Amino acid sequence: MVKIKHIIIAILVVIVGIWAAFYFSQNEEKRVRKQFDILSEWVSKDPGEKALTMAHKIRSAGDLFAEECEIKAPIDSLSGSYTLEEISSYAAQARLQFSKLSLHFYDLDIEFPDEGRATGLLTANLTGRSTSGERVDETHELQCVLKKIDNKWLFTNLEVVEVLKK
Predict the structure, then answer these.
(1) By the 8 A CB rule, do 81 and 89 touch?
(2) Model confidence over 86-132: pLDDT tens digits?
(3) Distance CA 31, CA 62 (A)
(4) CB 128, CB 102: distance < 8 Å
(5) 3-state secondary structure labels for all residues of 8-31
(6) pTM, 2 dp
(7) So what CATH class is 2-161?
(8) Paired strand residues for 119
(9) Is 45 helix (H, G, I), strand (E, B) or coil?
């Protein structure tokens, strides 16, 4: 009778352990996904956006990146290692070129290859209108790496994955 109680308790402990591991890994995935949601929100710009709102979005978007972030793009002039301040500055300059802008992420596949490191493979769609009236609609596949620094998931690497064209 005592052995059966011990076996039942052991089984319950294992079940709770499996549930806890699944639950906490899901929470980390949700936190990583949230970083993409926040980035999308902060990059987006509505017509008539005030300068103060833009400054807040740019400063806040900078909080999503590590002190150094490596960017790889098909355009060599965009590729390189950037500081947090450089990312914020370039983002501000880029947003000034648009009267309307929206960024959406699709098909986000997140993996955790190491403790404190997440990789995301996704499709990014940037649409909007330039200040000169030109319509913009760009879609690219991205490979992103985020690291958990001071209990926050921060982007450390962004790579535009080149897809072969027909």
Answers:
(1) no
(2) 988 888 888 889 999 999 999 999 999 999 999 999 999 999 999 99
(3) 17
(4) yes
(5) HHHHHHHHHHHHHHHHHHHHHHHH
(6) 0.78
(7) alpha beta
(8) 111, 145
(9) strand
